[in-house]
Design brief:
Layout: H1 9-14, H2 16-27, H3 33-49, H4 59-71, H5 76-95, H6 122-130, H7 143-158, H8 162-166, E1 173-174, E2 179-183, E3 189-193, H9 196-209, H10 231-244, H11 253-268, H12 271-278, H13 283-286, H14 288-304
Antiparallel strand pairs: 1-2, 2-3
Helix pairs in contact: 2-3, 3-5, 7-9, 7-11, 11-14
Length: 319
């Protein structure tokens, strides 16, 4: 059995097996640069912890590596992410015939409670979307106000991810059909409806977009300089809308996406439809919103059902 001495850092950075897998994630599976970078960090950590050849890596060695991470104070969620990266990497080797089986298949990381997102109720969402525009002087018809209103309406009305919103181009919006074409994770394309309020806000923005956009710029949402708006700029504008609306929580694009999903599920109960609208590849990812819905139902039950209310001695029970 090879020793666990660490290979030189240069070998970690240039390991050909890791490089091939990262190229596969980027070029074949179409994962985002951010996701590929996360895989790279985890797999470099694996390479530093394992000095042997990849075919020699077995379940016992992996358990020792994972135990070392836990002893070193790594958060359980971080350890589970590390294991997911290792599992995918070794699956790739199995598919290419470089090893017979994946020793990480039956290996489970430390349990961790999955935190439920703190959502917005319908009134809070309306507060943020209907708040007066921030500007001095306040001008609800300015290009800035129109652009921000359209972005907020699409984030909440269509459940878009931040990168999906900033990646939209002009041809992606079909105003006649009321649909938006979105390029999601893994470069999976989907079409989502844009509601009446979002379409009206888009119409208002497109009427003035030409005042800002450069002639060769295809992006739907642009800055004053005429180029595609950045993720960070959208985050700032959304956070500002939350402050203007007087919310007691920090507003960010993903919170609006959570609100879209939970409000739609509360009204429809159709988990599969919500999965399609959100662009989730796995239904289990969408099922987190059933927990939010169950919390809402439990609160209604506790408040309204006669067999759920706490007993009050004044009721005269036992008389």
């Amino acid at each position: 059995m090879p020793t666990a001495s660490r290979p030189p850092e240069g070998e970690v950075s240039t390991d050909p097996a890791i490089a091939d897998y990262l190229a596969h994630l980027r070029d074949v599976r179409g994962l985002s640069p951010h996701t590929v970078a996360a895989y790279r960090r985890d797999l470099r950590e694996l390479r530093r912890a394992w000095a042997g050849t990849w075919p020699e890596l077995d379940a016992a060695a992996l358990r020792r590596i994972v135990a070392g991470l836990a002893r070193g104070g790594r958060h359980p969620r971080s350890v589970r992410r590390f294991l997911a990266a290792v599992r995918g990497f070794l699956d790739f080797q199995v598919e290419r015939g470089e090893r017979g089986a994946n020793p990480a298949t039956g290996l489970r990381g430390p349990k961790t409670d999955r935190p439920l997102p703190r959502g917005l109720d319908v009134d809070q969402a309306q507060q943020a979307l209907d708040a007066p525009p921030a500007a001095a002087p306040a001008d609800p018809d300015s290009p800035l106000a129109r652009r921000d209103r359209a972005m907020l309406e699409l984030l909440y009305g269509s459940g878009l991810r931040l990168a999906e919103l900033t990646g939209l181009d002009l041809p992606d919006v079909d105003r006649e059909a009321g649909m938006v074409r979105v390029l999601g994770k893994g470069r999976r394309e989907r079409r989502v409806p844009a509601g009446r309020m979002a379409l009206a806000a888009l119409r208002d923005w497109l009427a003035v977009r030409g005042q800002w956009a450069n002639d060769d710029e295809p992006a739907l949402f642009v800055t004053r300089r005429g180029r595609r708006i950045s993720n960070r700029s959208v985050q700032r504008r959304v956070e500002e809308a939350g402050r203007r609306g007087g919310l007691d929580v920090r507003l960010h694009p993903h919170r609006l996406r959570h609100a879209f999903a939970s409000h739609l599920l509360e009204s429809s109960g159709d988990l599969r439809a919500v999965q399609e609208l959100l662009g989730h590849a796995d239904l289990s990812t969408t099922q987190i919103y059933t927990h939010l819905d169950y919390q809402h139902l439990a609160e209604v039950y506790d408040a309204a059902h006669p067999r759920a209310r706490r007993h009050d001695p004044a009721d005269g029970a036992g008389s």
